Batch of 2 targets.
Target 1
Amino acid sequence: MTETLATAKVSHRFSAAPERVYDAWLDPSKLRIWMKAALMEMGLSGDIRRIEVDARVGGTFFFSDIRDAGEAKHWGTYRVLDRPRKIEFTWIVDESQNDEPSVVTITIEPDGTGSIVTIAHEKIWASYVERTEMGWSRMLRAIDAMLQAR
Amino acid sequence: MPTPRSETLDHTLIALADPTRRAILRRLARGEARITDLAEPFAISFNSVSKHIKLLERAALIKRRKVGREYILQFKPKPLDEVQAWIAKQQAFWAASLKAIDDMLREEDEGKVRK
């Protein structure tokens, strides 16, 4: 089986048990603590505006934080909630992605008394290629127009 | 005014400027394929597919490897810097998230010990 292209994948070992890591993703008060720290680690303000979680399959979440360019919004729908093994949700940062969102899968495996967590964030490639095509054809049209104007 | 990079850019541009080549890329983005597999859905000759593949290879968007008597083609996304940048950015964010969760859970544990 070939690996899906455009997948961002990271993993980390926790000394905490799978249940605690799992709950950190769905409990709004815990989300607020770690997301603020993660955003600050990324060099952002970590000024969280909204955290809303409807933790059931088909339920949605919404996170936003304040950045230089304004309020950065992230939202999506939970597709798999299998405590404490797996969480899968769509991850959208822009209205234009609503139809073909990226998908985040969090896999939590027990490891002794701790756990190993893997996050795979897949971008739907076809839509990217489509957009790239549009970008390129726009650019080619622009070049064409420029050459004709001379 | 050619710069060292402009040739690479030209190759990428030329490779992406044709609908058949874009369709080949889309197909390969779903998984590896043999050259013979590609000719069929596009209703074009093996020779014609070969020409398209050469241009895609020149742009380093695909790579071939020989398995037995067949060539297997693989999509190489590297020239598409935008995608690379996206992956790097997401990885950094999720890695920072996992570290932050770890820190939070450790602090919870320390809090418990103190109590």
Target 2
Amino acid sequence: MSRPAPAARERQLLAAYGAALVALSFLHHPGLLALLLALVLLAARGDAGPLLRRSLGATLVFNLSVSLGYLLLQAWQGKLGTGTGHYLLTMNLRVLLMVFLGFWLLTRVNLLQALAPWPTATLILTLALGQIETYRRLLSDFRLAFCSRHPAPPRLGARLRHGASQAGTLLDKSLAASTEASQALRSRGAFDA
Amino acid sequence: MHIPDGFLSPQTWIPAYGLAAGAWFWAARDLRQRLDESTVPRLAMLTALAYGLGLIMVPLPGGSSGHALGVALLTLLFGLRPAFLAYSGVLLLQALLFGAGGVTALAVNALAMGLAGGAVALLLFRLLRPFQESLAVLLAAWGSVMAGALLLALVLGAQPLIASRADGSPLFFPFAWSVTLPAMLIPHALIGLGEAALTLLVWRYARRRGWVQTAAGSPVTP
């Protein structure tokens, strides 16, 4: 059997991911969710460790705040029991599995290629991603330059002046970069009706 | 204030996707005619700014997060439809790249923060602009944050009613409105002040560059 074309493969993976999210929303058994998580980790092979760490990092603070809040509420109402543990396991495993699948998807799918059937969404996302990269690079340059100018910890005033000038430069540079990108798009007919 | 994956019941997020699909279609209709090579760079720049703002977040005890949005800014400068579409893109990127918010909650987050937040910002701005423009921008931004927070608190707090076991224990988000409403609204009333100040600063930056659209200075119509 022939392999699907890259764009079709991207859409198939996206559809499979969507179907998995729907299915996971209807599963409420912690054992089953744990088994699925183990299977997904096995399937991700070498990516499993880094993706799991990333997923835990993304979910830990929020899930911890909900879990502790729920635990305290149950204890305060005198309702602590196996049901509490069952709920906490189910909720945390489901969230972890969903987030892991999202990160795993990104290692397999080019998002812009998957969104190709929606040209307006692709146009805005392409330009926004370009600007995000511009912001990231500029922030890093500014931070390093600021550190090199201040061998001792800087005062609040210096930090504020630095922040204000950095914000202005970020907006100007980002605008210049996206103007350049949109002119390139214009020359390729992206704005033609 | 994103709702993460796994906290909303399918009875909530699947119909929300249906509603959002209609709203996305409405927002994308004739958008290409409304954008040109001068507005697209600005939209991209401020979309990226909204993306950055949304990532600086603090967790709230009600199971969500507190952060600035940038929705009011996008709406006041580009109109409701482009802003809603751009902010939906921001939410998608944040969900997939950082696990901030979630794909299952994307439609609810986009409708609450992007559409309702943007609509409230536009309404307040138009009502108040004849009196004092800066005040109108400040209140529009604060109002957009509060509108989004209110809707998300209502959706989260409804989860125990929508989806729970026979014994009453929750299947998804566990807290009722008595927890979600104060947990979302009180911190966001403060976060909204920061958002308002930031929106005014960027609004003034945009005015200096002549980005405000019409002769009367009104924003692009939705």
